[in-house]
Amino acid sequence: MRKCEVAVLGLGLMGGAALGALLEAGVDALGFDPVAAGSDRGSSHGSCRIFRRFNFENPNYTGLSDEAHAGWIRLQAESGQTVLTETPILEAGRPGSAMVASSRAAAIATGRPDPMMTAAVANKEFPAFNLPDDWDVVVQDGGAILHTATVMKLMRSCAANRVIPERASFTPRHDGVSIRTASEEFFAERAILALGPWLGRALPQLTPLLNVTRQAVGWFKPARPETVALGRFPIFILDRGPDNIVYGFPDFERRGVKAAPHNHGPVVGPDDWGPPATDAELRPIGEALAALVPGAAGPIVDRDVCLYTNTAPADIRLDAGDEFIIDRWPESRLIVCSACSGHGAKFAPAIGQRLARLATDPSYQAEPFFQLSRYSQFA
Fold this sequence. Notes:
The protein is of the alpha+beta class. Helix content is about 25%, strand content about 25%. Helix 1 packs across helix 8 and helix 2 crosses helix 8.
């Protein structure tokens, strides 16, 4: 039986960052994942995610963003590969948009100049847009395209022979965690579970708190390519009303404008990655582009499906849901990470450090708003 101090099950962005943090600290750690970097499955697949310094979801996230940004810049410097491509972020919504107000407040709280501007000024500065005159608009710095496909390959490469590319099952024991693959048995003193949409299957007690949803993603051939090129066009997040948020990227890959809904799609199982996003699923996104970003609107040229693993609203330390779980599992040597809810990718270096500390420092606790005890069944 092969032994290690810490095992990491699941090597997406969160698990990969945790494994990297452990190995960098000199911990004897192994990572397990049958899904290869570059696969079209797993919560971290695909070429890019949005990095935002100022986050409308939680006012406490700015410090987390800054910590993560330092980690991304360090990885970029050490590897010599592009991890972050800086670009402004335009956030806009109907008058009184809570999303825009929260993002604006997060920036002002750090002493930044007020990022608010009129829709008319935004349309002039970024001519791909046709935002209604009465919409609220902020344009923030501190944004970037996070090149996740590059990051995934770098993380696997850095971990090298500490990665076991096999499916693994685990059994908690009083003195650690027994782990078995098809070819070998392992024993770890502690194990981090960063299993994305499969977490509820591994820990059925979590199932009532997690919803896995199908998210359609499309790439659109822009009507005016010159207006959506990198450097002329920002990342955008548009609040069109309750549960109707659309986001998108500049055409930085010459593949078209990537755009998708941020509202929850239909609930699915963790293995339901097909079929590809349909025309019907992408039609509302095309209509939103035609109305609000006509320079980016056009035929669908590529499509994909992501799965969000969304947390339910908490009932002890109240939140609105879609928060992260970063905590020790009760009465075990397991550490749980369900850190996506559709907006966790940008924080991976910071979350990886927290997971590593939970596995190695008995006195450490993650922030209260990440802990399981915010739910009554774990209080």
